[in-house]
Structure formats: structure tokens, C-alpha cells
Amino acid sequence: MAGRPAHEIARLLAEGVRLHRLGDLRKADNCYRRVLRLDPRQADALHLAGLIAHQTGEQERALTLIERALAVNVRQAPFHNSHGVVLLALDRLADAEAAFLRALDCDPLYAEALNNLGNALQRQERNEQAVAAYDRALELQPAYAEAWCNRGRTLHLAGRAAEAVTSLRRAIELRAEWPKAIRYLGDAATAAGDLTEAEACYRQALALDPADAEAHTALASLLERGNRLDEALAAADAALAADPHILRAAVVAAKVLRRVGGLEEALGRLTGSDFSAARVDERATAAFERGQILDRLGAYAPAYEAFVEGNQLLAQMPAACRIDRTIFPSMIARLRACFTAEWVSGWASLPPPNASPIFLLGFPRSGTTLLDQILDAHPALTTMEEKDALDQVRRAVEQLPGGYPEALAGLDEAAIVDMRRLYHEEVRRHVGDLEGLALVDKMPLNTIDAGLIFRMFPNARILLALRHPCDVVLSGFMQAMQPNAAMVLFDSIDSTARFYTEVMELWRQYRRVLPLSVLTIRYEDLVADLAAETRRILDFLDLPWDDAVLGYAEHARTRTISTPSYHQVVQPIYRRSVDRWRNYAFALDEALPLLRPFIEEFGYAPGEPPAD
pTM to 2 decimals? Predict the structure, then answer.
């Protein structure tokens, strides 16, 4: 008789597995339940019943069943792997990571556990470690489409868009007509600047799965950034029809409506549904958009509170929490200590290059994107928008004896030639062959490295974008900045003002100790008389006038613009952003004393001429 239960258990388990593979979860679960009535400690039945509970959304029951299976047999790698999958579904990310590591302790060659470990690491925004886990999975199983897809998604999130595109294309080669992977490829193509491929991907994903709210949302966002507002609103509405709780789609719809003047309806889009399940970054973006709408409605105190909320939410993101806020202040302090007239006078003499880029500097939100578009419209110029070419050179100097900036003093001719070659290679990687055009390198915070610019390109001409310091600080605070070592410093008006002061004090010092060739352009003067200011810039650059610069807005529509000003620079010149800070004077009490010296120096105080 003892053999009969064992035989029946084996039969029921086999039947349950067969039904499970066929997708008949109800009947499969019934088989596993019958096994557990015969033997409540049957580990395989506990584990498989737990998987069905997970698949049907009963995560707590799944957790209980799988933990009972582990209590029976703790050395089963699949049990630990499934345990981690359920913990991941419950958003217990650190516990899930530990479970996948236990699975790998039981079986180091378990590719699925490595893939899932990558997912747990990615959810914790530990993207480089996640990529390493996917790479290990793919070493074991090169045709693992899911790992290629997850790897591509994570590379995109890590800012490695070109590599992400390659990885996602491999996933789709292995598993054709896979809507999720095709949508992820669209996201990576967007980040890589290939908006044509991105749109094609989103539309292909939607052809395969018309109810994919995420694909509708991604398409809506792409269309809004491309200023195709009617199409963008339709795509956002399609996303919300598929999933009324998808906050990103509501934000896109609100942004479109704000841009076309439907402010009350825009506000309603952000308050008309339950978005409580949205991710923290999505809630942050919604708060910033709500602030922009309230600002346009003239409700300045509620707008300010919305921007405070958005910045507080961004600060909660794991990536923001891990960032050392002292990186830039410490670097600036080190540069100020080094760059003295005495130190610079002792530099080894080096020959200048035959040709130098034009550097467009300033502080974020000073009008550099508008200048970028105007200059790029000139037939003799091409602009490189916020790429890391100069950063790569600085990192190379950091590896030299003495580090950065100290090693600048002792550079010899061979070293400086190598540095210039590195810079130009990075430029070509981003903008291709210049084909005789002059390069404008637009990166506002390269202001901090103006000393490096002078050492590399002593004859380079620099355009310095200025704007009323209070407007600069306020505008930075009002933007949903992606967390990095610089942007985390924009999370309050006071912090932004301190950062502005540090950067501009360093700029003052550079002007005192280095013979820089600089033209300052005030945003307010540019929007007051576009033609006159642009003519002054072209004269400084020894370039002839060309009417194309006045058509910058139409030209901008043909370009991919990555900064928060993408929707502003395709409009005709407007003065709405001039002196906006006065509406928020109530929030600037502590910032004003820090900013006042620059307000006066840059000619914004009554009776003061602008500095040059």
C-alpha cells in the first residue's frame, strides 16, 4: 500500500507539469493541491504551486509555498531562484538579490538565476553590476534572448545607448516579433538620437500588441519632443485608454495641453486618476509638470510647492542617494587653489593648434540651447550639444602624475597632441566628420574646465551665455534633472544658488589669470534684439551674416534636442522667461545675498553696464 501514494504523487506531479507547460494553470494547480493533500511536505509540489500563485498575482501565497519548499530542501537552486522572482514581484529588491545569489551558490552555472540577479540589480539602479550578471548568463547561454533584452534595457538606463541598440537587436534576432524587446529598442534608439528608428519600433510594437500602454506612452513622448502635438495627444490618450493609471501618459497629455494653452485641462490630466502606484521618478516628473502648469496659470505659491515636491521625490531615487554631493564643490575648490597667476606663469610653453573649436559656456538654464540652435543654423557652423568630449580629456589628465589640474603645468608637446587627438576623436564619434565646418562645443558646465580649454586650445574663442542669476537659479530648480554629480545640486533654490556662486566665482578667477578670448551674451539682450546680438556674435567669430540664423526655430525642428529647452527653441522669440524670478521672490530670501555680486557684475542692477 505504501507504494500507491508515491505512484499517485508521481502521476499527479507529471500531469500538473504537463498542464502547467500548456498554460492551463487552474488544472495544474489542482494537481499540485492533490499532491499536497497526500504529502504536505512534497517539495516539488510546494514549489510549483508557488509558481502558479506567482503567475496569478497571489504573491504572498507564492512566497509562503516556496519558503515551505525551501524548508524541505534548501539546496535546490530552482527553489531559491523562484523565491527571488516572487520577492522581486513584491519589490523586496535586496532580499531578491540574496535569493538569486543563494541559487547561484547551489548552481554557479545557472543562467536563469544570473539573468534574474541582473534584474534585481537593475531595479536597484546598480546598472553596471546588472550588465555584468547578464554577460555571465550569456557566456553560459549565448542564445538567451531574455538576457540579451534585459542587458540592452540596462545598458540604455546606464547611458550606453549605442551598445543597448546592439544588444536589443540581438534579442530580436533570437526572438522575432517580441513587442517588449522592440519597444525597448525604440527607447534605446531614442536615447541614441535615431528618432526615425525609434518611431518605427514603437509602431511595430503596437502593431504586434495594440493594447501595450507603455508603447503608446513612449510613442506619445517621442512625438511631443518632435513637436507633433496632435499625434502626441492621440497616442497619450490611447495609452490611457489601455491603462488609465499610467502616469507617464497623463504627463505627456498634460504637457501637450499646456503647450497649446489648455492649462485647466492639462492640470486635470494630472489629478483625474489614481496614480498612487506610479514609480517615484514618474511622480517626480508629474510634480514638475504640475508646477509648470500652475506657473503659467499665475498660481506661483502652489507652483513652488509642486517644484519642491518634485525635487524631493527625485532625491529619493536610489541613484540620487548614492551620489556624492561634494564631487563638484571639491573639484571647484581644487581648481581655485591651483589656478593662480604664479602657477600659470610657470607652465611649459606649448604650440597652439592650427584650428580650435568654439566653446559655448555658461551655467545650465542660461540660454545656451537657444544660442546653440541659432549658431547651428549658420552654414559655416555645426554644434555639438552637451557631449563629453572635454570630460574624456579631463579624465585622461587625471591619470597623469599629479592628477587634474596639477598635471596641466607639465604637459609636453607630445602629451598635448595626444590630448587634442583624444578630443577630436570624441567629437567625430558624436558629430561625424566636420567637413570644413567650425565646431561649437556647447556644454554649459564646461565653464568649470575653462582652464583645461585654455591649456588645450589657447586661441579658442569662448561664448559665455549669461542670464539674470535669479532666473538661472529658479529655472534650474524648476527642471526635473536626471540625478548626476552636478544635477543633484539643483534640488533646492539655495543649493542651486550655492552651486551657481561656486562656478561663477571660479569663472571670475579664470578671467583674472588667463588671457581668454571671450564674448558674453545676455539672454535678455538676445531675446530683445535677436538680429543685433547674433550679428555681434558672428563678428566675434569672424563669420559673415547669414539670414539662416533668424530661421533657427524652423532649423531646430530638424534636430534632436536633448535639453529641457527642446520645446522652447522651436518657438519664435518670446520674453515670458525674462524676470520670471520676481514671481518667486518669496522663495529667494537666502539665495539673493549669494547672487547679488553677480547681479551687479553682469549688469542686472539698475545703472550697471553688462560685464564683458
Answer: 0.83
DSSP reduced 3-state for 332 = helix
Which of 50, 40, 38 minimizes the C-alpha distance to 12? 38
Under the banding of pLDDT at 50, 70 and 90, the label for residue 567 is very low
Beta bridge partners, 384, equal 441
d(CA 502, CA 500): 6
Structure confidence by residue, pLDDT tens digits, 99-123: 999 999 999 999 999 999 999 999 9
Amino acid at 6: A
For residue 597, pLDDT beyond 90: yes
Helices (H), 272-388: 280-296, 300-316, 318-322, 327-338, 341-345, 368-376
Cell 502648469 found at: 293
- Using CA atoms, how far residue 248 sits from 7, 215, 468, in Å, is 54, 11, 33
Q: Long-range contact list for 296-299, CB < 8 A, 24+ apart? A: 296/258, 296/263, 297/263, 297/264, 297/267, 298/583
Other residues' Cβ atoms within 10 Å of the Cβ of residue 465: 26
Amino acid identity of 192?
A: A
Contact 534, 549 (CB under 8 A): yes
Residues 6 or more apart in contact with residue 554 via CB below 8 angstroms: 570
Residue bearing the bigger pLDDT, 543 or 319: 543
pLDDT of residue 558: 64
The string of DSSP letters for 135-148 reads HHHHHH-TT-HHHH
Helix %, strand %, coil % of the chain (to 5):
65, 5, 30
Q: Pick from 330, 363, 353: which is nearest to 450 by CA? A: 363
Best mean pLDDT range from 383-387, 542-546, 558-562: 542-546
Strand partners, 466: 522
Residue 563 has pLDDT above 90, yes or no: no
Among 123, 122, 118, 124, CA closest to 100: 118
* Contacting residues for 128 by C-beta, under 8 A, at least 6 apart: 158
The residue to which cell 490630466 is assigned: 269
